[in-house]
Amino acid sequence: MKFICCQTKKRSTQILIASFFLWILAQFYYFYYLDLKNYFIGNTKELYDEFFRPQRTGEGNYYQGRYPGHMTQEEREAAREEARKKIGSVNDDDGFDKDGFRKDTGGRKRNRRSRRKKGSRDSEGSTKVERLKPGCKALEWHSYQFPNCNEIHEIDLQAAVRHPREKYTSSSFPWGFVSNGLWRDVFSCDPRGEVSGSIEAESFPMPPAVLKIMKREHPYDQRNFQRHRRDALVMERLSSSHHLVPIYGYCANTVLTQAISHTLDEVIYAREYETTKKWNPRIGYESKPPLESWMGKDENGELLATRETELGRIHLALGVFRGLVDLHEGDGKTDMEWLPVIHADLQAKQYLVDSNTGKVYLNDFNRCRFIAKKDNSQNAAACPVYIPTAPGYSRSPEEYNNGALTEKLDVYSAGNILYGIITGKKPWNGERGSHIREGISVGKRPEIDPAIRDAEGTVDAELVRLLDRVYEGDPDERASAKEVVVALEELLEKVNEGK
Asked: Considering the chain, what is the average pLDDT of its residues?
């Protein structure tokens, strides 16, 4: 190697040649060592012990350095027995009480570190903070699930997703991969060939469904199974609602729902998105097309959904809070016992807007929480909910303060959406630092231009007053979603009468 390096005058070439030889040596050593080690483990225990196994370091340390996967069943049982003798009695006492705390600690309780990690979860994936408290009882339907896995498994992903994406485009909605969030990848598809099987054209219309599949980096555990079960169950229980996204199927960590063209933030912040380029995995960096290019129009030529008119702002606000009313109050069309469902992740992007009708739909319930009732209560009094974490900047003060939670936290988060509808700007100018969370936790609110707040007799001034009610720091004083809808409907009626 020295001879070869010396024949070249450029130092960069010498370094490249030396690196290549070092890489070859590393590969040879790595694979040779592993193959030899595996051979010794599987065929010659004595040779493995002589060359690879760590030596004993003293009395009682026979198993030190011995990996469980390399131990025989007899050795593992012997190791367990030795551990039991050290931490408990011979009467199968493992040294812990029924609550998982160490005994004989002088009255102090110490977490069961060796067997139960801090924040361990129960059979449904809930942490200790999230579990039902004594005296609380879940409603009967909270445990329901209605999977229709055959419907999901019969979807030919190659035919329903990949093929249309390669050959066709849609003016309003992409075929194939649509987007992804923190938990799921979203693909548009045509499960039964309702569109792709009957139309032979260069461009396809709107795909009928979207398939939401959990990302592979997330564990397939009970916690995530329960997330998707609750997501599907909420849509199933409220399938008669006109303000929630319709569900078509659910299986394990996959949900199939109706495809709806756009998210609410694309309407509220349309002008900002038109001038800002963002990464698109299909075509690279791009800015959003103008709102007028994809939003439908009514008979008067007005956009079906927009925040740029007074009526448009009222209609968008109604769409936001009507979905919340159904989630909190139930659809009112069944006789089942109902307590509010907390969405717990309300943002403008969690609402979808149909460009053909302008209607707003509430979506994504995989972080939702069911409120239990107090046991033996006659009027189904609600128990508080506790959520261990509050990521993001759109949470309520009680979430950041780790307090007892009710459905009113959704109303506060919806206030951030209402703020965008009124101003066209994101709360806190889109900042997400810790100082924002700290400010919210002590009662700070995003500022409203005094010119809007003080414009007496205008729709915006009325919306600001309503915003103050939903931004109330005390959940008991905060307006409910139903109260907000009533106020908005009265405002809409007043505007229509004044025309």
From this structure: 78
